[in-house]
Amino acid sequence: MKSAKLLHNWPADVAAAIILVVGMGFGRFAFTGLYPLMVNEQILTIAGGSWAASANYAGYLAGALAMAKLSVRHAVPAAVASLLATVAALALLGWTDTVWAVVLNRGLAGVFSAVAMVAGSLWLLQYMGRPHSAPLLYAGVGMGIFLSAELIALGAVPGWGSLLIWRALAAVALLLALFACAVLWRSRRDLPLPQAVPKPGAAAATAAAFAGPWLLIAVYGLAGLGYIITATYLPVLISGALGGAAPIHVWAAFGLGAVPSCFLWHRINLRFGVRISLALNLLLQGFGVLLPVLHQSLWAYLGSAILVGGTFMGTVTIAMPAARQLSTHVNFNMLAVMTAAYGIGQIVGPIAANAIFDYSGSFAGSLVFAAVALWVAAVLCRPKLGRV
């Protein structure tokens, strides 16, 4: 009984956050920080990196679709599998020096990161019945981005190459994953499967606010489209405009900004409701995306990193618990479909950005396009009379 009580306190919350630290922060976004170094080492070309990024986005979508029927009962083995597979993918990149091997690896890593997002959310929010811990769960993504970026920066000090840095990332990810796996597996042994379901009043209120699930899914897809252009190209934009060692630390600021934002946007959501909170979040995020268009300076790029980093996981923190409430109104895994919609947005975003760049020779049009997508999503969230 003592271990059961512990699992209702900090270990479960921390383990859930680690699922996203490893599965998303390391497995998905560490590539953004190492991409410029891999190009410099001629392991990747710019085109090869684009293929790798596209494979990752496609893998994320495929993983989300594969999880569409995942039951709460199977959340633990799915989460454990995603952790171990992500560590293996990171380690393999430490011995991979061909473009197509990297592309294949990034595609599989995208699958694992989607499984981590869906299974981690199911386990904590439904299996463990801890929806109030959503901010800590989703803060794991930002903490993973920050930690992996600073490890990359630390590895650059003695002049490590990208292969050695990938191995170091895998080693740190393994240590984190072992703790999370121990807590996850103990939850199967010590706790009965909770019968925690959304309160009818909360589910009905959220359903009424969004006129059913599909508007929320559409908003979430647009949010994925809007943030991913900054998340994909920010280090490239900075290195192209400013040079020097600034890009990796600005990318770290992107991740660091996401950590407290999950708690902030959770409080705003509790105070103002889902629609108002999402509208404010997406409006501010759009402005952050647009900042580098308004001014090309270190402070503009840093401001963009902090604003977008400080809002994109806030979107998740607001939207995913709302999706959990709406799950009683649908006959599919709402969290998986939300993740899939986000994945579709993340595929469309870079494709549109590349097309605009080919036409204009600048990323300015791509950033304007992304900001408009976020503002359209914000308009869709506008509160109706008597609804929040």
Q: Work out the helicity level.
A: over 70%
Tally the structural domains: 2
Second-tier CATH architecture of the largest domain: Up-down Bundle
In total, the number of strands is 0
Rounded to an integer in angstroms, the radius of gyration calculated over CA atoms is 20 Å
**Quick one: CATH superfamily of the largest domain?**
MFS general substrate transporter like domains
Q: In this structure, how is the largest beta sheet organized?
A: none
State the end-to-end distance. 41 Å
Q: Which oligomeric form is depicted? A: single chain
- Overall, the morphology is globular
In the CATH hierarchy, what is the class of the largest domain?
Answer: Mainly Alpha
Report low-confidence residues grouped into runs of 5 or more: 1-7
| Helix run count | 15
Q: What is the H/E string?
A: HHHHHHHHHHHHHHH
Average of the residue pLDDT scores = 86
Q: What is the CATH third-level topology name of the largest domain?
A: Growth Hormone, Chain: A
- Classification by helices and strands: mainly alpha
Fold and architecture overview:
- The chain has helices spanning 2-7, 10-26, 30-40, 46-66, 75-93, 99-127, 134-156, 162-190, 200-210, 213-241, 246-272, 274-294, 298-326, 334-360, 364-380.
- The chain is mostly helical and 388 residues long.
- The protein has two domains: 9-196, Up-down Bundle (Growth Hormone, Chain: A), CATH 1.20.1250.20; 200-388, MFS general substrate transporter like domains (Growth Hormone, Chain: A, Up-down Bundle), CATH 1.20.1250.
- The termini are far apart.
- 56% of the residues are buried.
- InterPro entries: MFS_4, MFS_trans_sf.
- Keywords: Membrane, Transmembrane, Transmembrane helix.
- It comes from Uruburuella testudinis.
- Pfam families: MFS_4.
